[in-house]
UniProtKB/TrEMBL annotation:
Span of domain NAD(P)-binding: 7-219
Pfam families the UniProt entry points to: NAD_binding_10
Family, as annotated: Belongs to the avfA family.
Organism from which the protein derives: Penicillium bovifimosum
Coiled coil (residue ranges): none
Classification via InterPro entries: NAD(P)-bd_dom, NAD(P)-bd_dom_sf
Protein's name according to its UniProt entry: NAD(P)-binding domain-containing protein
């Protein structure tokens, strides 16, 4: 498999890259700073897959055609969005990267026949409605984050997530062109070593945390399957990663429950 990894020097991507290479998949890691190229290439040492680096700034992706040029250069089977402004450059850059550039890559990926899978690393609180499984106090924490702590980030992620969900819903109308749209939604990210113990799929822990390494391990597991899609929430918990991924696939878990998918489709594709 050829994987296009956007945001290749991010902490999650640095954990994810060698996991994908161990599968004998080839990874093209998109980074902005050429000084990081040697660090990325070193991740492939001794592993089965090939690692390439594409130096290209997502700040320059102003349209779907800009994203398409990158996709056409790589010709990936899978696209992974692990990018973000990271709070640098103020609200306008957060909207430009986390919302607009993400949407441009989604548009281009869904339009590219060779691309069959898109995994977006999003955020647990990126939703409009309190889900039935989440206690009031946990939901209140999400609302506070979305409205007071990180309002621009929350708005950008929600827009990108809903656009992805709408695209996936429209694509399902054409069974001849299957597409896996996976929206992985971790809680508060930490830099602790992986625990390999998670609460995956649906969680009431609106303010729960998860290590970046565990996010990468889960993303790797999801990408390797042909039977998972939709919104998949993630925090650290008590279930082993492999068992959790298997359960989510078997039970067809999708945390989009409670959100109005048809309204998303009508908003983007009236």
């Amino acid at each position: 498999m050829q994987v296009l990894l956007l945001g290749g020097h991010g902490k999650i991507a640095l954990h994810l890259t060698p996991l994908l290479l161990k599968r004998a998949w080839n990874v093209t890691s998109v980074i902005r700073n050429p000084d990081h190229e040697s660090e990325i290439l070193a991740l492939g040492k001794g592993l089965k897959g090939n690692i390439k680096v594409l130096v290209s700034s997502l700040d320059d992706v102003k349209s779907a055609s800009d994203a398409q040029k990158i996709i056409d250069t790589v010709t990936p089977d899978y696209v992974v969005w692990s990018a973000g402004a990271g709070g640098k450059g103020g609200p306008s850059r957060t909207i430009a990267i986390d919302q607009e550039a993400a949407k441009h890559f989604l548009t281009a990926s869904f339009a590219t026949p060779s691309v069959s899978k898109f995994l977006m690393i999003s955020y647990l609180g990126s939703r409009r409605n309190q889900p039935s499984w989440m206690p009031d106090d946990e939901w209140a924490g999400i609302v506070k984050t979305n409205t007071e702590v990180l309002p621009t980030y929350a708005k950008a992620k929600q827009e990108a997530d809903e656009y992805m969900t709408a695209l996936a819903a429209v694509r399902k109308r054409d069974p001849t062109r299957p597409f896996q749209a996976i929206n992985l939604r971790p809680g508060l990210l930490t830099d602790q070593p992986a625990t390999r113990k998670v609460e995956l799929g649906i969680t009431g822990k609106g303010r729960g945390s998860v290590t970046r390494e565990d996010v990468a391990i889960v993303a790797d597991g999801l990408l390797a399957r042909a039977d998972v899609e939709g919104w998949i929430d993630l925090v650290n918990g008590e279930e082993g990663v492999e068992e959790a991924v298997e359960r989510v696939a078997r039970e067809r878990v999708d945390a989009v429950v409670g959100e109005d998918v048809e309204a998303m489709v009508k908003r983007f594709f009236p």
